[in-house]
């Protein structure tokens, strides 16, 4: 069931009494939702590279559109919640624009605090001929305040050298 009866999802992806995932236009879906009602927001927005699901825009227009989405996410984020924003690079005429660096000031202008800049490395993707091929994306993890939910133990990676002090 949709979180808002006025929004018709494109299709439900996962349904649960307390949690759900839907495929819908993000701003249309988010605007009617109650402020500070979401504990965790994880998103991987389009990178403005002309994929089938996006229209390629000038970088300034793209950043302006992303700024609207970021504003809605901040409005919806619970005071103890987390916002994880996964981005790659925008490439224009062979020049690389790292979207995490471009979007970071927008998050800071909303008063969010960066907790981690997580690098997701993968071994696939397109091969470049005039630069090294991009094999990573960045996840920016933000919170509104210092009192936030973080459960380390379920995701903790065991120490390679247990007991090492130095």
Written overview of the protein:
The protein has three helices and eight strands; from the N terminus they run E-E-H-E-H-E-E-E-H-E-E. The protein has 166 residues and is α+β, with helices and mostly antiparallel strands. The strands form three sheets. Strands 3-4-8-7 form a four-stranded mixed β-sheet. The chain has a two-stranded antiparallel sheet with strand order 1-2. The chain has a two-stranded antiparallel sheet with strand order 5-6. The termini are far apart.
Estimate what percentage of residues fall within beta strands.
25-35%
Mean pLDDT, nearest integer?
Answer: 86
Low-pLDDT windows of residues = none
The computed structural class is alpha+beta
How would you characterize the largest beta sheet?
A: 4 strands, mixed
Number of E strands: 8
Percent helix, as a range, is 10-25%
Spatial strand arrangement across the major sheet = 3-4-8-7
Key terms:
166 residues, alpha+beta, 8 strands, 31% strand
Describe the secondary structure blueprint for this structure:
Layout lengths: L10 E5 L4 E4 L2 H5 L7 E6 L15 H18 E11 L1 E4 L2 E4 H11 L3 E9 L14 E8 L23
Parallel strand pairs: 3-4
Antiparallel strand pairs: 1-2, 4-8, 5-6, 7-8
Helix pairs in contact: 2-3
């Amino acid at each position: 069931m949709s979180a808002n009866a006025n929004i018709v999802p494109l299709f439900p992806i996962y349904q649960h009494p307390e949690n759900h995932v839907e495929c819908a236009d993000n701003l249309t879906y988010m605007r009617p939702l109650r402020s500070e009602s979401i504990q965790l927001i994880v998103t991987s927005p389009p990178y403005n590279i002309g994929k089938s699901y996006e229209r390629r825009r000038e970088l300034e227009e793209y950043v302006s559109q992303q700024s609207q989405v970021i504003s809605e996410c901040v409005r919806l984020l619970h005071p103890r919640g987390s916002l994880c924003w996964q981005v790659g690079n925008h490439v224009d005429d062979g020049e690389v624009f790292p979207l995490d660096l471009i979007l970071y000031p927008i998050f800071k202008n909303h008063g969010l605090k960066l907790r981690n800049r997580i690098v997701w490395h993968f071994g696939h993707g397109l091969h470049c001929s005039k630069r090294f091929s991009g094999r990573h994306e960045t996840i920016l993890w933000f919170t509104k305040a210092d009192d936030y939910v973080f459960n380390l133990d379920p995701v903790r990676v065991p120490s390679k050298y247990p007991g090492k002090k130095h």
